[in-house]
Amino acid sequence: MLTMRARFLATVVATGLVAGCGSGATTTPPAGSQAPASASATYDAYQDSYTVPWVGSPDFTNLRATLKVEASVNGGPTSPFTVDTGSVGVVVPAAEVPNIPADSPPGSLTYSSSGLELTGVWVTASVAFPQAVHATGTGATAQAAVPVLAVTSSRCRGDGVNSGRCTGAIPHMLGVGFGRGTTARAAPTHNPFLNLAAMNAGTMRRGYLIGRDGLSLGLTTANVTGAWDMQQLTSAGAPVEGPHNDWLTPTGGFQSGSGPMHSGKVLIDTGLLDMIVEADGLPSGGTVPAGTAMTVTVGDLRYSFAVGDGGPQTPTDVHRAPARNGTFVNTGLRALGHYDLLYDADGGILGLRPE
Fold it and tell me: Would the keyword Signal be found if you checked this record's keyword annotation (predicted)?
């Protein structure tokens, strides 16, 4: 599901198409244009948003587990779901999805880092966030209707940089990334964070913000505050499914030791704690040794660490992978040790706010 190798590359094999919801106004800046200098100029027309608390109050200065929010599918049990910007689509055990239609089309999804292959059926279902609080201060369940993979079986294929950690357990995943590929299963119609009812009605700016105190759904001048470094993304073109175009992953790169800066694409993948780097001329496997100095760039921002130094932005490991798509770095979640992250799906903007 990803044109570049990454941890949560979701390769979907399915029959039939399940249409998700998604309508309302979309702005598509020309490729190469600059992101807005003023958040107020972009978001002052919007006041509608939700906040959703993180499960377990994670410590961003030392993230040791993925970020999770409470969610339920089709009125089923509420469970902690991982917020994964490295994939697209909701994954849940089929036993937790009530009223699955008998004619639901089969499908499967594989996470490339772990080699975990999931098999089940696709069903368009409601995805609700019961702990959401509306901007007015009232408790109001945020809800989207999107295709969901209801998983009935799983297996570890034995490939991927994290294959040794694969247990075969069926995860609870909210795949909310962008630029994951050109198939229907990678389309924005499968992203629950971009298909809330208010977004479909046009009263909420399609996008989200991953912050210290929780998740914001819908972008407004009230939640897009402070000094953001915003990168205008390149449009991925007309979507395979739905009315909203997708966006390509942002520009960035990495430097390992005293080597050159490798410039290409970057993915801030909140679904894993380690890092994956790829570039022509570098080893295509193994890990970068402890103590090696690393620098990562995301647009105009950069941060540095030494492998194994335990810093807030230092990944648990740095893996090398074959450069099948040129220079690429998957930062992993711990890149957010000093940043909040914003994704504006209507404007095609990735934002990072130093914290």
Answer: yes
